[in-house]
Amino acid sequence: MSRLALSGRVVVDREVWDRGTVLIEGGKILAVERGLVRGDTTVEEPDGYLVPGFVDLQVNGAFGVDVATQPEKLVELSRALLATGTTAYLPTLISLPRGRYQDVLARLDMDDEPVVGPLGLHLEGPFLNPNRRGAHPRCDIANPDPAFLAALLEHTRVRMVTLAPEMPGAGTLTALAKRSGAVVSVGHSEATFEEARNAFRQGIPSVTHLFNAMNPFHHREPGILGAALAQRHVACGLIVDGRHVHPAAVDLTYRTFGPDRIYLVTDAMAACGMGEGAYSLAGQKVTSKGGIPLLENGTLAGSALRMDEALRNVLAFTDCTLPEAVAMVSTTPARISGEGRRKGKLAPGYDADVVALSADLKVRAVWAAGERRYG
Known about the structure:
Layout: E1 3-12, E2 15-25, E3 28-34, E4 41-52, E5 54-59, E6 61-62, E7 65-66, H1 74-81, E8 86-94, H2 101-107, E9 117-118, E10 121-124, H3 146-155, E11 158-163, H4 170-179, E12 183-186, H5 193-201, E13 206-207, H6 223-230, E14 235-238, H7 247-257, E15 262-264, E16 277-281, E17 284-289, E18 292-295, H8 307-317, H9 322-336, E19 354-357, E20 363-368, E21 371-374
Parallel strand pairs: 1-4, 5-8, 8-9, 8-10, 10-11, 11-12, 12-13, 13-14, 14-15
Antiparallel strand pairs: 1-2, 2-3, 4-19, 6-7, 16-17, 17-18, 19-20, 20-21
Helix pairs in contact: 3-4, 5-6, 8-9
């Protein structure tokens, strides 16, 4: 079996080795060694960095593809995302008309691309608080319905469910999703501190795009943010495009939560990787101008953020180190998604998903399962 050796500055756990080698065989990482070690094929990136593939848990679309209206283009989306360093992600559906789910899911084949792509589906709704719906159409927000969720969980491979825990019956949905193996995340919610804390104590490990579409922190009512801080097992998604969350708030979040409790997401929609113009978010008209996608009423409609930009932004907005930034785009989201034993690290036995970054942290090349797929 052929052995591939990738050599460069290797980011391993919380260190950067000035010279190291990732040895790959059979689609897996065989070893990570200090110094230059040659294989049957050796690729050297002496001035660049080798990091694990990025894992994005919230992708509504990108590169002109909208997951909700063009689910048959998922393979195209997966391959395009490689240019951003993303080797694994959760295609995300915002709230849809109830009758559309079965049609979309029937056309959404997450197994066509065997090397890169979806870990499963993120259902960002429809069981949300309509008062915090964001870009979700109000008419598509649904009251908690166990039978409806059970049908969705049975139909496809759901990996994450975002819901508002304060809605009557949300606890039943949480238990149902957990039994199916899906991760439940608090989002689009007006939960009080007590309601959010109770939800986290029931085993919910995540908050969807912290700060956005939720009640703000108040010293007399700390809300979801305060409850998440109080429960050390909870990690929070964060959109670091500088628009959804102010850079100073990103820095404060990093200082309080740390890289093991933050996973960066793009919340990307079809305008990501494209120019200005009109796009779709689950059938809604979105206009992207100056890199900001907006609904006709001026509401932010996802983002045009790339994952490699998120990596550079979090370094610019905070005092974090490169290994900590890598943890927030790879290690932590892989763990939250349930894939922490095979993705998100450069370590023996892990999937050989490797990104070569230039000295200025631009994506130079990407290997997925040991195959060079970009660059």
